[in-house]
Each structure stands twice: as C-alpha cells, then as structure tokens.
Specification:
single chain, mainly alpha, 6 helices, about 55% helix, elongated
C-alpha cells in the first residue's frame, strides 16, 4: 500500500468523527420521538420519521469519510481490515476495535431500516435495539481514541451528546406508550397505498310476480252486473 499522510487527512478524521457523533445523537433522539409517537399538526409523525431516516443516511456518509481518511492515512497504521474486523489494528487495538464493533452494529441497524417493509416487525425491533448499544460503544471509542475528546470543545460536544441521549433514553422508557400488536411506523414514501373501495348502496331486488300462483278471485259484490234489457221477438 502506498504511504499517504497529510495533516489534512488527520484533521478530516477528527472533524468527521465529531460530526458523526453529533448526527447519531440526533438520530437516536429523533428515534425516541418516533417510538413514543410524538407528533402534532405542525410536525406530524411521518415527518419526524422521514427526518430521522434522512439524518441517519447523512450520518452514515460522514462515518464512511471518517473511516476512509483513517485507513488511508499512513501516519497511524490501522489497516483496511480493521475497519470491519475488530482487534486487528496495530494502533490502539482496543479503542479501534470498539469503533469497528459500533460500525458493524450501526450498519446492521441502517440496513434493517431500509428493509423495514420486507422483514417481520419483531425482527426489525430486535435489531433496532442495537442502536443504543452501538451509540454507547461509539461514545467510548471517541473518548478513548480521539485526541480532542479529553479537553476543549471536543469534550464539551461529547458531554452534550451524552446528556442528550441519556435524557432521551430516560424519557423513552418512562413515557413509553402502549403499542398495538404488529403496528409499526412505516414511512408513507415506502408503502404503496391500497386502493380505496367505494361502498355503494345495495340495490333492492325487483319484485317478480309468481306466475305459478293463482290470481285472487274477484268479489262479485264489489262490481255488480247491470241487468240486460229483455228482447221481444
């Protein structure tokens, strides 16, 4: 592999790491709002769900930039395999391994969100719970690996993210609503609406006379016959 090192790569790695942490803090917080069915007339539940999914996609992009700049920077020898396989990096093996585990969990959660309409609700919820574990591991990775996470603005950002997610987790479990069985908050953009069936008023059946039935007999007193004049021969 060609040696490639530059201070700009190192700055990009540090900056994208903090931006990714902030974005995933927003993703987890918005996911809590979606799970607790928050929404009103100004901002509906589907809008929050779409914002949650969009920020998650942007966070994955910044996470990819963070990994690529870390791997190609030869100043710290991590290796491309360390990005997906834990405990193979010669540089800070345990902290880098924590970042790899967090990456694998985040990618699994992200893929399950893309396939939400194709998998079972119970499987999707089980996989989605790993987002909390992934965030906690990523936070430890940032504290153990990042050079800016122990002082200055980096430490302030990490503590603010920790406080936001801790508050969201506490509110998630204390204000959790009763969920209907099998109900999920699917996005309206990924679901094909079923055609509405128009209910028509039933047409009453026509009364058909029964030809086999005998006609009622006429009452002779109702229509008396006139006496005929007598003819003379």
């Amino acid at each position: 592999m060609i040696a490639l090192t530059s201070p700009y790569l190192w700055y990009t790695t540090r900056a994208t790491g903090l931006v990714t942490l902030v974005l995933f803090t927003l993703v987890v917080s918005l996911g809590t709002l979606v799970a607790n069915r928050v929404g009103g007339t100004a901002v509906g539940r589907f809008e929050l769900n779409e914002l949650h999914r969009t920020i998650a996609s942007v966070a994955i992009v910044f996470l990819g930039i963070h990994i690529v700049t870390t791997v190609i920077d030869s100043y710290v020898a991590t290796g491309p395999l360390a990005a997906v396989v834990p405990f193979v990096s010669p540089y800070k093996r345990l902290p880098v391994a924590l970042g790899t585990i967090a990456l694998d969990l985040m990618v699994a959660v992200w893929i399950s969100s893309l396939l939400k309409a194709r998998i079972a609700n119970t499987s999707w919820r089980f996989i989605h719970w790993f987002s909390w574990l992934a965030y906690a591991i990523a936070l430890v990775h940032a504290l153990a690996t990042g050079t800016d996470s122990r002082h200055g603005i980096g430490l302030v950002v990490i503590l603010a993210c920790l406080a936001a997610v801790a508050g969201a987790a506490a509110w998630r479990f204390t204000a959790r609503p009763t969920r209907a069985a099998g109900r999920t908050a699917l996005s309206p953009l990924g679901v094909t609406p079923e055609p509405r069936r128009v209910q028509r008023d039933p047409v009453p059946p026509r009364a058909t006379p029964d030809r086999g039935a005998e006609a009622p007999a006429r009452d002779a007193t109702a229509f008396p016959r006139r006496p005929q004049p007598r003819r003379h021969r």
